[in-house]
Amino acid sequence: MSRALPKYNKRRVVFIGGAAAVVLSGAVIAGSALAGTPDKSSTAQSARTLADTGTISCPDVKSQLPAVPASAQAEVDRNLALLDTQIAEANKRLVDTVGQGGANFVQNAILGPLKDKRTSTIDRIAIAIGRQGTKPTGLDSLATCALSTGGTDVGGTETGGTDTGATDTATPSATASATDAAGGTDTTTAAGTISCPDVKSQLPAVPASAQAEVDRNLALLDTQIAEANKRLVDTVGQGGANFVQNAILGPLKDKRTSTIDRIAIAIGRQGTKPSGLDSLAACTLTK
Q1: Is pLDDT of 276 > 80?
Q2: What is the pTM of this model?
């Protein structure tokens, strides 16, 4: 009896030790597997971000330009680089604002403002080339960008009004609603009032040959404000804290900058081009 007991204890120790080793090995293997597996929530977040944002793609401007005079090359190159910067900033904003706003947030807060910025920049390129050569036409059609998600383009048409260059005409009803009895440019709405500096009163004497073009662009400034005020009402409650600035006031400033620049150029063709008018482009929201 005393001899059998040690053998039994020895077998039991071996059995228990073996079982413990199996359990420990399983734990180590499971731990290794878990350590090498990416966090599911992190993976899902990454996939959601890539799927939800997409990529903003814009027509190439450089390839559509005519021969650029040497004297304009530096200015043209600077503005071409600015176009690339604008796209990069828009794509970054696309990622940073995933999930914000309503169904039209990307169009109103990113694609729309981007189009306005590109319109102004492309217009400066055309003007620079035109100073020493023939000003290219039709480049405004390259301003509109689109959001590509999974191979599908979304957007490309700005809502809330467009500024298509010097050939734009003002809508009488819109102009009337934007101009008060004193000749100002304030429109009061339930959502607040967009107020812009008066440009006409800051102009020098306008040459007779430029009067029609100047008047047309002054009327366009009023139209832009009326459209911005309408958009202010139509989008009440949309977006975050900076929605009005990013989706309405920012694009309005870009449109006004381009229009005011055309006014200055028109005057400068037959006289001294006025300077400092760009300071009149920024508008404010008063509630």
Answers
A1: yes
A2: 0.46
